[in-house]
Amino acid sequence: MDPPKVLVIDDEEIARVSCRRVLAREGIAVSLASSGREGLEILLQEPHDLVLVDLKMAEMDGVEVVRRIHAFDPGIVTVIITGYATIESAVAVMKEGAYDYLPKPFTPDELLIVVRRGLEKRRLDLESRALREEKEAMERNFVTMVTHQLRSPLAAILQYFEVLLAGIGGELTDSQREMLQRAKDRLESLMALINDWLDMSRLNEGEIVNRLRPVDLRQCLDEALKGLEWSARQKNVSLLVDIPQDLPRIQADPDTFREVLSNLVSNAVKYNRAGGRVTIRARAQNGSVRVEVEDTGVGIDEKEIPFIFEQFYRARDREVRAQEGTGLGLAIARKIVRAHGGTMEVKSRKGEGSTFAVIVHAAPAEGAGKERR
Amino acid sequence: MATKGKILIVDDDADFAKSTKMILLADDYEVVIASDGKEGLRKVQEEKPDLIILDIMMESIFEGFSLVSSLRSDPQLAAYKNIPILMVSSVRSDTGSRFAFDDPEDMGSLPEPDDYLDKPFKPKELLDRVAELMARKRA
């Protein structure tokens, strides 16, 4: 390990030199400065652990030197050297953040005790700072690491299924193929669950609030629909969009709000009937915009409506349970909408369909012109 | 038999490397596997592959990226500078080839691979990307 570094700032040469002799014997690297200005220049060039500062100096006094050192790096430990007559001002300097003081004249042992104690404090400060930084970095990357730990084995297993189902590695009988396909489907829904759960824990309301800006709903919806058109066609469900041209822009975080839309529309498709319809409407209502997603699907039992936004809740209906789902989609959607300062409403009739509404603030009016992203 | 080209897979997940290898073998590529970044770098020089399939998260988060940056910018490896690199990862990419860390500063400025694929992938998806990268290299 590097030897600790101490800087001595004193305008008396004898004092500087004797400090150096005592400290160097202890294996401490010592630099000397004859004025506060020179001392500060040395600190700019090279970091030091501890600085001994004489209180009474002609050019810049010790109080000012300590203040400037701390302004530059509050982590440097400073010790004030002072004559008996100026102990009171030494106390004043300690209020400025000096760690200790050393009355003149002092013996080599007294100097060493104070310096060792100061260096020990410096070492502990550095250690705890390093630990704190490490902990913060771990917290920041925790979700990413968990994602990796959970997703990696699943990805490796799924990849084998993909290979087998593609017929690489040998022809399969129909019943083998069917079983492998089922196994793969189940794994994929496990993967979806992990993804949703991670989305949920990664959602940070504070960050959403910071990203709110005027957003063109139509554009946001188009992007959300991109991934859903295929599954709608598969299910023979038609998607209708009814958004007035003059709809005000909404105050939203485009990335997460798109998640909300895609979530609601995907539910509306998934729980629909073959040949059914999903209608997405929007209208302005005093300072807000109301977006509705209406389906012609299985509907929700009135008794169950209060619970559908809860994590992992899934309706009891057999037709609902027949669909793969994680029970997290609506919980995520509501969390996002709340971070937008908005609300969600739901109307439903069992057997006829449901309408989910999202109400968010319209963007504050400013000029015309469309947002380009 | 002449192959369509030699591909180096760098991945610390032996199962993933194996299934990827099977896909590539079935499409007439020659395949070499390395299980970490260091071995990867050695095999690049020994085997001179036509394409590298690289897992982002090997032992440490940055091992994959550091391999990319050595290949792209180390003057001693200039001969391998133009080998296309397809990055794969089971960490979902939310934004194109950049996968998501909560704090973009943790990522710093990282070298971009030529293409990116989320794990797991469908055999056809992989083969399409590989074919495209190979064609781009020849062009």
From TrEMBL, chain A:
It catalyses: ATP + protein L-histidine = ADP + protein N-phospho-L-histidine. It is found in: Cell membrane. Residues 5-119 form the Response regulatory domain. Residues 145-364 form the Histidine kinase domain. One of its GO terms (cellular component) is plasma membrane. Its EC number is 2.7.13.3. SMART domains: HATPase_c, HisKA, REC. InterPro entries: CheY-like_superfamily (IPR011006), HATPase_C_sf (IPR036890), HATPase_dom (IPR003594), His_kinase_dom (IPR005467), HisK_dim/P_dom (IPR003661), HisK_dim/P_sf (IPR036097), Sig_transdc_His_kin-like_C (IPR004358), Sig_transdc_resp-reg_receiver (IPR001789). Gene3D superfamilies: 1.10.287.130, 3.40.50.2300, Histidine kinase-like ATPase, C-terminal domain. The modification 4-aspartylphosphate is found at D54. Transmembrane segments: none annotated. Keywords: ATP-binding, Cell membrane, Kinase, Membrane, Nucleotide-binding, Phosphoprotein, Transferase, Two-component regulatory system. PANTHER family: OSMOSENSING HISTIDINE PROTEIN KINASE SLN1, TWO-COMPONENT HISTIDINE PROTEIN KINASE. This is histidine kinase.
Automatic annotation (TrEMBL), chain B:
The keyword Phosphoprotein applies. The keyword Phosphoprotein applies. InterPro entries: Bact_response_regulator, CheY-like_superfamily, Sig_transdc_resp-reg_receiver. One of its GO terms (biological process) is phosphorelay signal transduction system. It comes from the Bacteria. Keywords: Phosphoprotein. Residues 6-134 form the Response regulatory domain. It holds the Pfam family Response_reg. Signal peptide: none annotated. This is Response regulator receiver domain-containing protein. It comes from Desulfacinum infernum DSM 9756. The lineage of its organism: Bacteria, Pseudomonadati, Thermodesulfobacteriota, Syntrophobacteria, Syntrophobacterales.
